[in-house]
Design goal:
By secondary structure, the protein is mainly alpha-helical. It is 66% helix and 0% strand.
Length: 335
């Protein structure tokens, strides 16, 4: 690595924390969520042979970023909203803003994010489906998907439908849920509601389910409410949507995907997506993959779907780290 600019966001954060010393670094880490701690911790563990020049460059970039921030409004709700939207984009920031500004005391719900999915499932298993839907909406989609898979089969479609039709939760209800998760929600209509739930949230959770479970849940939802099922399905990011990625994102993704997984996944993809992958490979690699696809015999649909899910999971991880943009187009995210 030639300079600080070649580090990704997690590595830059790791270098900054390791420059602070143990006590100060620990104080910073306490302010991060479970995924951020894992990402930065992994980066710290993997850093090696960092030169003094590289460290100085990362620190200088950090100081420059801080210098460009105004002190006016620090600590105000509007300042927090602006920073989060600038850093994460409107979609990702909205739910987080609500949780921070309207659920500041939600220590119990936040604690669920750190718990093993099985433990979370046990905590909420006996709760009303509406309570379960709010809890899952509050978790990260991949975490929520694991918890959902551990709930009784008959409960899954009901919970997803409730998430999809959830139209905001009042802040005091989140506080009550945080305390005992049994009290009824406040009916006050003059308080702004927290934007957890919705069809996008339901789709994001289903995106992380195994294909068989995803299919079962969607079939059950469509039997009950075909329009809602179609709306949820429209928001889901499926393997064919990878065709919408820009070339740079496809190239980044291909570097992370094994050739065996790609071969299996492409057996079930349309010609347009295949050409998208071929276009972003070297000529020799594309020719070899095309030959392998032609020579490959029949493959179980379950194997194809599993490979596609694996690649989608890698794509989401790269999107979360700011390495690719799932919606197409360029851009970077910073931490």
């Amino acid at each position: 690595m030639a300079d600080g600019g070649s580090f990704d966001g997690g590595e830059r954060a790791a270098i900054l924390l390791m420059s602070l010393g143990e006590a100060d670094a620990a104080q910073v880490l306490r302010q991060l969520g479970p995924k951020e701690v894992q990402k930065v911790g992994l980066a710290m563990a993997n850093l090696s042979s960092i030169t003094k020049e590289q460290v100085n460059k990362v620190l200088a970039e950090f100081v420059e970023t801080i210098d460009n921030q105004t002190n006016l409004g620090v600590g105000s709700d509007e300042y927090i909203k602006k920073v989060l939207v600038d850093a994460l984009g409107e979609d990702k920031a909205t739910g987080m803003i609500d949780r921070i500004l309207m659920g500041r005391n939600s220590k119990g719900l936040e604690a669920l994010k750190w718990m093993d999915p099985r433990a979370v499932a046990e905590v909420i298993r006996q709760e009303h489906p509406q309570i379960i839907s709010i809890v899952l909406s509050y978790l990260d989609p991949d975490h929520a998907a694991e918890v959902l898979s551990l709930l009784p089969e008959r409960a899954r479609p009901d919970v997803i439908m409730r998430i999809a039709t959830l139209d905001g939760i009042q802040p005091n209800a989140l506080i009550e849920l945080d305390d005992i998760m049994e009290k009824q929600f406040s009916s006050s209509s003059n308080v702004k509601s927290s934007s957890v739930g919705g069809t996008k949230a339901a789709a994001n959770i289903l995106n992380f389910l195994d294909s068989s479970l995803e299919g079962e849940v969607m079939d059950a939802i469509k039997e009950i409410d075909s329009d809602l099922g179609q709306t949820i399905e429209d928001h889901m990011f499926v393997f064919e949507n990878l065709a919408d990625l820009d070339d740079r994102s496809i190239q980044t993704l291909l570097r992370e995907v094994s050739s065996d997984s790609l071969l299996l996944a492409m057996k079930g993809s349309d010609e347009g997506l295949k050409q998208k992958f071929f276009k972003n490979m070297s000529k020799r690699a594309a020719e070899m993959l095309a030959d392998d696809l032609e020579a490959k015999g029949p493959v179980r649909l379950s194997e194809v779907e599993a490979a596609q899910k694996e690649i989608l999971a890698i794509a989401r991880r790269l999107a979360e780290s700011g390495d690719i943009m799932l919606g197409g187009g360029g851009g970077e995210q910073f931490v």
